[in-house]
Design a protein that fits this description.
Layout lengths: L15 H4 L3 H21 L12 H26 L5 E3 L4 E2 L2 H37 L9 H14 L5 E9 L2 H7 L2 H16 L8 E5 L2 E7 L3 H14 L5 E3 L2 E3 L3 E9 L5 H17 L4 E3 L2 H15 L1 H6 L3 E10 L5 E12 L3 E3 L5 H4 L4 H19 L7 E4 L2 H5 L3 H12 L6 E6 H6 L1 H14 L2 E7 L6 H6 L4 E4 L1 H4 L6 H16 L3 E4 L5 H10 L3 E2 L10 H11 L11 E3 L3
């Protein structure tokens, strides 16, 4: 159990040593200063001289240490010490008048009162500043700064073999929750979240509110990973029933990230970062929880390094498009190509698209890469004078939901004087289902311009007949996972047959991806698949090599209707 009692930050200043002394010791020090000051005044000639003002030192110190009572009492005592028994002039033996030392005592007492009040107010204000710095204003829960201080304290005090675990609770549906709850209701929700978490813990102090949608729990984990797994499951189970906020039932969908480490001398920020990475992975994978591994941090770091080089890659032409031929299955003639993005990094070598494109999807860099791909692919299409076919460009989820790029596409068509009917946009089932209505709007606009739509990886996503009916689809691509097992798997055969039959019945043409054997090719031809591609036909190649391949293998311009596909994800 963690029990970290924070100190007043005012007590960490100049008088830190005095503050740490017990009250009796403090009082003794003040008395020594009072009588020491009195002795100093006596030895310097009495109250006739200016040295009597030295008595303000113990008054100030007492007001600081004991507030108003200490200031007043010390002022009275100081006045008496410099009072009837202290000569006005030691050398002549002249005594003070009663009015003189009584007036001084009143002044000392008033000074103690004022100073005590000032110090008291200052302490309260600094305590409030500390509370705001270390605790959430609305919920009263300790915050991120408090958590880092706690980890730092534990790291200094723990033994080398002591393990602790951070549990990061990420509210996956926080954006939806903020739409239905106001600020006050969100504060109540966070309090209830902490209470539910606390029901499986021993101490309320272990729960921290990092952000309105992010809670953290730190516990001792001597039981290691197995103990943390059990605790993660227990915490997760606490959020399976809705939380009522002002009679509004709120369903909480959480992902838990777990970081486990030996706490001795650990870096607090790094420990918290590990938990955050694990929570994000749990959210991405749609799992109840995920336990952090070092290789995951390295992977995240490498992805960020790659993202940092995207702008340079565009500027220095490190990106390149390769093309894989697509043929008409019945004749074997080339009728198109699929363009695949390649990154030739000057230091890291060839980087597969799947190592940077999924991360790119979540950044604005996606638009820069997409613009480069459209410009490069459409320009090369215009340069191939022998080729009268079309070029398809893959659209990611973000592009389907943000339609701003369509104007750039229109401008590019005009500048290149390219007929839009030669462009086919390729989409995935998963991208469509993020927001089917917005996707339908974007695709309808492209369709109205004269371009075609191709549905990629059919059968691997939702495969709903409803969205197939809603969307203006021209081509349907059968995923290579079915093609690779189509000869020996009855289930794969049934799925492929169903896809071909469905496409034929609604007037959509089929494309088989990933054909690698003659047996697969023959089966697809027999079942009526129209187009095909794969390593058996040809591997992807640069544009110049493609031109040579077409000339050597198939001649030039044998078919005018071509389905070209640009797939950034391969």
């Amino acid at each position: 159990m963690i029990n970290k009692k924070s100190k007043n930050p005012f007590e960490r200043g100049l008088f830190n040593v005095l503050v740490s002394i017990n009250p009796i010791g403090k009082a003794a020090i003040i008395l020594v200063l009072i009588f020491g000051s009195g002795l100093f005044v006596y030895t310097t000639g009495g109250t006739w001289y200016v040295y009597s003002h030295i008595m303000y030192i113990p008054i100030i110190l007492a007001a600081y240490l004991f507030n108003v009572p200490g200031g007043i009492i010390t002022g009275i005592v100081a006045g008496i010490v410099l009072g009837p028994f202290m000569p006005l002039n030691v050398e002549t033996g002249e005594l003070q008048s009663t009015v003189n030392w009584l007036f001084r005592t009143v002044i000392f007492s008033i000074a103690g009162l004022i100073l005590g009040s000032m110090f008291s107010l200052a302490k309260k204000r600094l305590e409030e500043i500390q509370r705001l710095a270390l605790f959430d204003r609305d919920t009263g829960l300790p915050n991120r700064a408090h958590l880092l201080l706690t980890i730092e304290k534990l790291a200094k005090e723990a033994n080398t073999d002591t393990q602790y675990a951070l549990f990061i609770l990420l509210l996956d549906n926080h954006s939806q929750i903020t739409r239905i709850l106001d600020a006050e209701e969100l504060s109540k929700l966070n309090k209830q979240l902490s209470q539910r978490s606390n029901s499986v813990l021993k101490s309320y102090e272990n729960i921290y509110l990092l952000f309105p949608y992010l809670l953290c729990i730190i516990v001792r984990a001597d039981g290691g990973e197995e103990y943390c797994k059990v605790l993660a499951d227990t915490i997760y189970s606490q959020f399976q029933s809705p939380i009522k906020v002002n009679k509004i039932p709120v369903y909480i969908n959480i992902s838990i990230g777990v970081a486990i480490d030996y706490i001795r001398d650990i870096n607090p920020s790094l420990f918290l970062q590990q938990g955050m990475i694990a929570a994000n992975i749990a959210s991405e994978k749609e799992l109840n929880y995920w336990i952090y591994r070092q290789e995951e941090f390295d992977a995240v770091k490498n992805k960020q390094i790659l993202l940092g080089g995207v702008t340079t890659a565009i500027r220095d032409n490190e990106f390149e498009l390769h093309y894989q031929p697509i043929i008409r299955m019945s004749t074997g003639h080339i009728i198109g190509v699929e363009a695949l993005l390649r990154w030739h990094h000057p230091k890291l070598g060839n980087i597969p698209p799947m190592e940077f494109l999924p991360t790119l999807e979540n950044t604005s860099l996606l638009y820069s890469v997409h613009d480069w791909v459209m410009e490069k692919a459409m320009s090369e299409l215009m340069d191939w004078e022998f080729f009268s076919g079309s070029m398809a460009i893959n659209l990611s989820t973000r592009l389907l939901l943000d339609h701003g790029w369509i104007k750039k596409y229109e401008d590019l068509l005009k500048r290149l004087k390219l007929d839009p009917v030669r462009i086919v946009f390729e989409i995935t089932e998963t991208a469509i289902m993020k927001d089917i209505e917005k996707s339908a709007v974007a695709l309808s606009r492209l369709k109205a311009m004269g371009s075609s739509i191709s549905l990629d990886d059919f059968g691997t996503g939702y495969s709903s007949l409803e969205y197939i009916q809603m969307l203006p689809i021209d081509y349907m691509k059968i995923d290579q996972r079915f093609i690779s097992s189509i000869v020996n798997s009855t289930k794969s055969q049934m799925i492929a047959k169903a896809a071909i039959s469905l496409a034929r019945s609604i007037g959509v043409e089929t494309v088989a991806e990933g054909i690698e054997t003659q047996a697969e090719y023959d089966w697809l031809v027999k079942e009526g698949c129209i187009y095909g591609q794969g390593f058996m036909i040809s591997k992807p190649m640069p544009g110049k090599a493609l031109v040579k391949w077409v000339q050597e293998e198939h001649g030039i311009g044998k078919e005018s209707k071509v389905h070209n596909s640009l797939d950034l994800n391969q």
